[in-house]
From TrEMBL, chains A, B:
It comes from Ottowia thiooxydans. Its EC number is 2.6.1.-. InterPro entries: Aminotransferase_I/II_large, Class-I_PLP-dep_aminotransf, PyrdxlP-dep_Trfase, PyrdxlP-dep_Trfase_major, PyrdxlP-dep_Trfase_small. Its cofactor is pyridoxal 5'-phosphate. Residues 47-397 form the Aminotransferase class I/classII large domain. It comes from the Bacteria. PANTHER family: AMINOTRANSFERASE, KYNURENINE_ALPHA-AMINOADIPATE AMINOTRANSFERASE, MITOCHONDRIAL. It is an enzyme of class 2 (transferase). One of its GO terms (molecular function) is transaminase activity. This is 2-aminoadipate transaminase.
Amino acid sequence: MPNSNLPFAQRLDNVETSAIRELFKLLGKPGIISFAGGFPDSAMFDVTGIAAAANKALTEEPGSALQYGATEGYEPLRKQLAAFMAQKGVQNVAPEQLIVTTGSQQALDLIGKTLIDPGSKVIVEGPTFLATIQCFRLYGADLVSAPIDADGVQVDELEELIKQHKPKFIYLIPTFGNPSGGLLSLERRKRVLELAVKYQTLVVEDDPYGDLYFNAAPPPSLLALSHEVPGSRDWLVHCGSLSKVLSPGLRVGWMVAPAELLARAVMCKQFSDAHTSTFAQATAAQYLAGGHMPATLARVRKVYGARAKTMCDALRSELGDAIDFVTPQGGLFVWARLTGANGKTKDGATFARQAIEKGVAFVPGAPFYCANPDLSTLRLSFATADEDRIREGVGRLAQAL
Amino acid sequence: MPNSNLPFAQRLDNVETSAIRELFKLLGKPGIISFAGGFPDSAMFDVTGIAAAANKALTEEPGSALQYGATEGYEPLRKQLAAFMAQKGVQNVAPEQLIVTTGSQQALDLIGKTLIDPGSKVIVEGPTFLATIQCFRLYGADLVSAPIDADGVQVDELEELIKQHKPKFIYLIPTFGNPSGGLLSLERRKRVLELAVKYQTLVVEDDPYGDLYFNAAPPPSLLALSHEVPGSRDWLVHCGSLSKVLSPGLRVGWMVAPAELLARAVMCKQFSDAHTSTFAQATAAQYLAGGHMPATLARVRKVYGARAKTMCDALRSELGDAIDFVTPQGGLFVWARLTGANGKTKDGATFARQAIEKGVAFVPGAPFYCANPDLSTLRLSFATADEDRIREGVGRLAQAL
């Protein structure tokens, strides 16, 4: 191979992507039923509404929608996003207290760029979002895994880890996390905010799934709760996204953070991509201003809720005590553990290979851990297959097992 | 200010943004005629054509245009961009040899992320693009300034700097550079490619302005020339952009690079923003496929060419021998030097303050140097004011001087 002597930066040595590549290779086979994705169902997109919003943006504000824009974000969108959060119970976030990011992935990148030095400790949940692990490691983070259970991150253990490692920050997905699908309890949410203040430690709340609840609304986000814990807003970063509820293709996310951090994130973003597409931002702003989100959210909640129920019912009836999981109350994922009952395999990666042979794909859980992986875990997405295909796919899983 | 103890990363200490903030503060006054921008004229955008392309994308391919996409870029756009470059004489760039970036600013960021370690030497032109300086410094680059003249970077001097510093790479804007407006001669282009091969050193060609020529086409890009210099493609990175010719708001740029580098840039991009807005990419692809670019380019070339001539004529007649510049043959900028004739000021920053008081803004040249700034320089954009306003603005400059 030519150029094997290209002078790559040392930070690239921190990242091992073969696990990811292996996962994606699994998905190429024709006829496969995929529970492997981490994305919403394209069939759920409000294409008509988005097209109308785009046309309105180009008719009413073509100069702004097609020109360079402020790195902080397009002002009308910042206002709409502040209002969107206010409707969800987040008080006192002014438009200038949030910046628009190119998807919430960019918020993670800006957090890494502004905060992480080589060797910096960062606490994440075990398991957590794969692209978060890689993103922070590219900046040289030394990740520490905090254990979770059915109520989310274990806060006593978290406090011990804070004391021991004095991390730059703690990264959590408290609501319907990827991959765990878990839900941090209200009591623990308050404890997390109290720990942030007590140890003067930043907490990053990544919240792309909080709107995707199926029945009762989840506990308030850490951001919404922060007014109950004095001083906690000074230590809280909140990342939101339209990707899971409206469209990932717009690449519109946002970040709320203390003013000093926000200013530095803007500086870094200026040299990362100058600004998020104003065309996409103006389209999103028009969509939100048009008042379409409540109906859109009601629709996706109903469809994903039904698919989640179908998948959980089928898993219980078809795989029985060979598999263990908590029924998700929202999000896109069932996070399950192979029990090894009746001599069945307990290894997620082995089971994934067996499943592919039977024509169904999912993602084994090990790569979602930054340390000490639970090899018996797996992540199943119920978002993109309809209910019949879900039942068929779970049937194939049973055959594979 | 609360949180002054937030644990920011050391890399932030590498960047001084006050110069930039000062520049932008100059622009707030009402009634000002601005030659300060680095952007195209919003009035030139083909709003109708872009709206039609967006509608076509959402009608014909809604699932793709609104869903997550490949980090490398949306396949139909990669094909269109390869074809667009082929029309400009770039042979042998297959779609898979380029990736789509979120504006060409992101290409710079990915080059920094994949190649620069703290302390890495990088050679740039003196002067060069301000956001390049900051972007590379955020990754810890130690920048070396290579002198330019009317024919672009001085290649003998460049060779000495390569031998002395053994840089990770050389960054050039060979065609109508920002801020210099300069044009690297054909002979020097070949020499640069030969130096890349001789010293096994990557050369980054940033080319957002190459399509904006006013009369004769400029010499071929380094990428187009590379087939004449055996082995040079292995050491060449080329960044393109639709921002200056179609719309910055789409944030669509691209990067051609050796396969190994491209693979690592994709890995880094995955954790930077996952992918560039598929909505913007599908819109751009439809626009290019519709064959609108030749007419759009002809229109902007004509308008900017007339504005450039108006500005240069007015500068010569109004400021006389107090100012010296090479008439630009393309791009957006006149790069000028105050001569100090007849006891007039020779300091660009002083002149900028005097000009603001007379109601006209431009950018003094010093911040565009990574070292040894020429304080007598200034950058004047002729892109966004019409010809009457340009004459009026240059009249105010004469009063200010």
